[in-house]
Amino acid sequence: MTVGVNVSRFEGIAMAPPDPILGVSEAFRADTNEKKLNLGVGAYRTEELQPYVLKVVKKAENLMLERGENKEYLPIEGLAAFNKATAELLLGADNPVMKEGRIATVQGLSGTGSLRLASALIERYFPGAKVLISSPTWGNHKNIFNDARVPWSEYRYYDPKTVGLDFEGMVADIKAAPEGSFILLHGCAHNPTGIDPTPEQWEKIADVIQEKNHIPFFDVAYQGFASGSLDQDAASVRLFAARGMEILVAQSYSKNLGLYAERIGAINVVCSSADAAARVKSQLKRLARPMYSNPPVHGARIVANVVGDPALFGEWKAEMELMAGRIKNVRQKLYDSLMAKDKSGKDWSFILKQIGMFSFTGLNKAQSENMTNKWHVYMTKDGRISLAGLSLAKCEYLADAIIDSYHNVS
Amino acid sequence: MSSWWRSVEPAPKDPILGVTEAFLADPSPDKVNVGVGAYRDDNGKPVVLECVREAERRIAGNLKMEYLPMGGSVNMVQETLKLAYGENSEFIKDKRIAAVQSLSGTGACRLFADFQKRFRPDSQIYIPVPTWANHHNIWRDAQVPQRSYHYYLPETRGLDFAALMDDVKNAPDGSFFLLHACAHNPTGVDPTEVQWREISYQFKVKGHFAFFDMAYQGFASGDPERDAKSIRIFLNDGHFIGISQSYAKNMGLYGQRVGCLSVLCEDEKQAVAVKSQLQQLARRMYSNPPLHGALIVSTILGDPDLKKLWLKEVKVMADRIIGMRTALRESLEKRGSTLSWRHITDQIGMFCYSGLTPEQVDRLTNEYHIYMTRNGRISMAGVTTGNVGYLANAIHEVTKSA
C-alpha cells in the first residue's frame, strides 16, 4: 500500500503529559495573581526572589572572555581540568582513590546526563540488574532508568507519620533486594524530602550494602549547598570510599555554582583498580558518543577556573555559605510562623530537621492542589516545596496557606 | 576485594576522535592533522569567528543562568528554522514545525532516532554507504534496525546514482531514509539538483520518510540558501521531513554543542504534540540543553549586522577550503601522478574521499606523520598553503605504485 505524502507519519502521536516538575513553572508563569509564589522547581532565588548568578561565575566568565579561548570540541570525556577538579572536590585531593588512579570521571550533562550515562553502563554490563530508588525520589530518576531500560524498584524512605526517615524500612528493603543490585542514594539534601540519614545511619546503610554485595550509586546534586560546607556534604560518599567500596557517583553544578543552564556535571566510578577505572572510562565514552559526541565546554571551563584559582575558590565557598545560610534562615522563619499561627499543637519541627533546598511538607495531593488553586502557591503534587523560592517576607503568607490546606482539606 | 567491572573490556578507540588523540601525542614537527572535521585557518589554527566573539562580549557576565525550557531557546530555534526552511517559510508561519534545541547534530540525530523507535517501533533506518561513523552508533544505541543504501561509487569517486535509485525503489513503502543535505560526510559527494529532484519524486512514489542531516549549511558552497537546496526541493514536493541542524562547523561553535531537531507536521496541533514528545525524550537524557551556545546563535542571527558578518565569515571559510582543493589537486598533478585526482575538486564541503586504502593511510601516518581516518577521508579544513605541498608529496609517494 502506498502512503501518500499528504498524511504525516506521525499522525497518531498524542500530547505528552506536562513534566510534573518543570510544568509547575510554566503554570506559575501563566498565573496573573499578584500573591503568587513559585515553590516548584529547585532553582535558588535571592530574598528578592530573583535568580542569582554567582559573582565568581561572572568573574570566571570575564576571565574566559579576556583569554579568548577557542571553541574546539572537548574530548568525549570532557575537559580534563574539570574532571580532575570535580573528582577532587568529591573525594578530597588527598584521597587514596585519587592517588591510585582508581576513579573514572567523565564530564556529563549535569546530573541528569551523568545519571543517564551511568544507567546506560548498568544496562550494558549488568543486564537484568535492578536499581533501587528511594520512595519518594526526584521525579526524573525513574524516567531516566525507564528510557535506559534499566529495571528499578523502590526502598522505603519517607515515613509520613514522623515526616522523617523510615530507617528500618530502608535497611530491610535494601537487605531484601537481589544480591548485586544498585542502590541509588542521595549524597546530601534528599530530593524531595530534605531528610538525610545521620552519620550513624550511613554506617549501617554501608554495612548492609556490603553484606549484600550491592553497588552504591550516589546522586550528588547539592554538595556545598546543603550545609554550606563542601566537605561536610561529601561525608556520605567519602565514608563509602573509605571502606574500599566500588561506587557510582553522579554530580551536578547546577545549584552549588548556579550553573543550571550550562548543564555541567560528571559521572564518577570508583573502582578497585586503576586498570578497571581505565576500562570503565573508555566504555562510558563509548556510550556518550552516540548521545551527543562530546559535552559542552562553557560550564566546564567556569568550574575549572573557579576551583583552580585559590581566590575564586574561596569566594565560591563564601557565596555557597550565603546561599545555604539564607535557606536555613527561611526554614527558621517558616517554622516560627507555623508554630505561632497553628493552634492545633502540630509539631512542625521537621521543617528545621530537614536540609537543603526542599522540604516535604507532608501535604497530600489534594492539599497541594489547594495550595495552588486557593493560595496561588506553586509546588509539586507530592507536597514538596522549594525553600530556595521562598523569601522571609513571604513566610507568613505561606504559613497561612499550609495551615489552611493541612487542616481544611483532606 | 574483586571488582564489579571485570567484564568491562576496553572500548575500541573512536575512529574519528581517536585520530586527533594520536596526532596530539606525536612529537614530530612535520605532523599534519587532516583527521577530525574542525575548521583551521591557513596557519592551521582553530578559528573563533568575529561575530561569535562580538556576541560573547554582549552576553558575558550579566545573564541569568536559569534552566532553558526542555525544548531549548525559542529564539535560537526560530532563527535556525528560517535557515533550513526559508526566511519566509509558510511552515514556520503556520507553526507546523515541531522543533527543539539539540546537543548539536549528534544530539538531534539521537533524539530523532529515539523518537522514531518510540513512535514507529517497526521501522528501520536506511543509511548511505558510507556515512559518518557515529550515525551507526546513534541508531544502534536507539535500537532502530539499520539497512544500507548505495551511495559512493569507488570507481568514479562519485555518486552511485543508479544503485541509489534502485535501493530507494526496492525498499518497502514508507521506509525511513537518512540523507545528507549537503557536503556528504565522509565522501564530499553530493547529488546534483536534477538528481535530488529525481530522488524526491521517487520518495513520493514510495511514501518514504526523509530525515536530513544538515551539518554543513553555508560551509559547502559558501551560500546557506544554496546549501539548503535539497531540503527545499523536498519541501516543495510536499514531503513531511525531519532535519538535524548543527552550528558546530558553520559558526565554529563545536564545543558548545548547539543545534536543532525539527519535524514537519500536518498542522499546528500535531506539531505541538510531537514537540512535547521530543521534549520528554530530552528530559530523560539531559533535562534541558546548554544555554551559552544558544545565546551566541540567537544574538548573531537576531542582529542584522552580526548576521551579515557571519555570512561573510562563512563564505571565507568555504572559499579557503575550495582553494585548498584546487591547490592539492594541482600539487598532485604537478608531481606527475598518473592517477586521476579530479574528485578532489568535484567533491564539496569539508571532506575529500581520497580513495586511499587503509594500508596507504597507515603509511601516511607511520612514515609521514599525516593523520586521517582509515577510510581515506581527508579533512580539507586541515590543509594549508604551508602543508599542501608536503601532503601532496606524501600522497603521491604512497600511491605511485598503485
UniProtKB/TrEMBL annotation, chain A:
<keyword id="KW-0032">Aminotransferase</keyword>
<comment type="similarity">
    <text>Belongs to the class-I pyridoxal-phosphate-dependent aminotransferase family.</text>
</comment>
<protein>
    <recommendedName>
        <fullName>Aspartate aminotransferase</fullName>
        <ecNumber>2.6.1.1</ecNumber>
    </recommendedName>
</protein>
<keyword id="KW-0808">Transferase</keyword>
<dbReference type="InterPro" id="IPR004839">
    <property type="entry name" value="Aminotransferase_I/II_large"/>
</dbReference>
<dbReference type="GO" id="GO:0004069">
    <property type="term" value="F:L-aspartate:2-oxoglutarate aminotransferase activity"/>
</dbReference>
<comment type="subunit">
    <text>Homodimer.</text>
</comment>
<dbReference type="GO" id="GO:0030170">
    <property type="term" value="F:pyridoxal phosphate binding"/>
</dbReference>
<dbReference type="GO" id="GO:0006520">
    <property type="term" value="P:amino acid metabolic process"/>
</dbReference>
<dbReference type="InterPro" id="IPR015421">
    <property type="entry name" value="PyrdxlP-dep_Trfase_major"/>
</dbReference>
<comment type="function">
    <text>Amino acid aminotransferase important for the metabolism of amino acids and Krebs-cycle related organic acids. No activity with D-Asp or D-Ala as amino donors. In plants, it is involved in nitrogen metabolism and in aspects of carbon and energy metabolism.</text>
</comment>
<dbReference type="InterPro" id="IPR015422">
    <property type="entry name" value="PyrdxlP-dep_Trfase_small"/>
</dbReference>
<dbReference type="Pfam" id="PF00155">
    <property type="entry name" value="Aminotran_1_2"/>
</dbReference>
<dbReference type="InterPro" id="IPR000796">
    <property type="entry name" value="Asp_trans"/>
</dbReference>
<dbReference type="InterPro" id="IPR004838">
    <property type="entry name" value="NHTrfase_class1_PyrdxlP-BS"/>
</dbReference>
<keyword id="KW-0663">Pyridoxal phosphate</keyword>
<feature type="domain" description="Aminotransferase class I/classII large">
    <location>
        <begin position="35"/>
        <end position="402"/>
    </location>
</feature>
<dbReference type="InterPro" id="IPR015424">
    <property type="entry name" value="PyrdxlP-dep_Trfase"/>
</dbReference>
From TrEMBL, chain B:
<dbReference type="InterPro" id="IPR015422">
    <property type="entry name" value="PyrdxlP-dep_Trfase_small"/>
</dbReference>
<dbReference type="GO" id="GO:0006520">
    <property type="term" value="P:amino acid metabolic process"/>
</dbReference>
<feature type="domain" description="Aminotransferase class I/classII large">
    <location>
        <begin position="30"/>
        <end position="395"/>
    </location>
</feature>
<dbReference type="GO" id="GO:0030170">
    <property type="term" value="F:pyridoxal phosphate binding"/>
</dbReference>
<comment type="function">
    <text>Amino acid aminotransferase important for the metabolism of amino acids and Krebs-cycle related organic acids. No activity with D-Asp or D-Ala as amino donors. In plants, it is involved in nitrogen metabolism and in aspects of carbon and energy metabolism.</text>
</comment>
<dbReference type="GO" id="GO:0005739">
    <property type="term" value="C:mitochondrion"/>
</dbReference>
<keyword id="KW-0032">Aminotransferase</keyword>
<protein>
    <recommendedName>
        <fullName>Aspartate aminotransferase</fullName>
        <ecNumber>2.6.1.1</ecNumber>
    </recommendedName>
</protein>
<dbReference type="InterPro" id="IPR004838">
    <property type="entry name" value="NHTrfase_class1_PyrdxlP-BS"/>
</dbReference>
<dbReference type="Pfam" id="PF00155">
    <property type="entry name" value="Aminotran_1_2"/>
</dbReference>
<keyword id="KW-0663">Pyridoxal phosphate</keyword>
<dbReference type="InterPro" id="IPR000796">
    <property type="entry name" value="Asp_trans"/>
</dbReference>
<comment type="similarity">
    <text>Belongs to the class-I pyridoxal-phosphate-dependent aminotransferase family.</text>
</comment>
<dbReference type="GO" id="GO:0004069">
    <property type="term" value="F:L-aspartate:2-oxoglutarate aminotransferase activity"/>
</dbReference>
<comment type="subunit">
    <text>Homodimer.</text>
</comment>
<dbReference type="InterPro" id="IPR015424">
    <property type="entry name" value="PyrdxlP-dep_Trfase"/>
</dbReference>
<dbReference type="InterPro" id="IPR004839">
    <property type="entry name" value="Aminotransferase_I/II_large"/>
</dbReference>
<keyword id="KW-0808">Transferase</keyword>
<dbReference type="InterPro" id="IPR015421">
    <property type="entry name" value="PyrdxlP-dep_Trfase_major"/>
</dbReference>
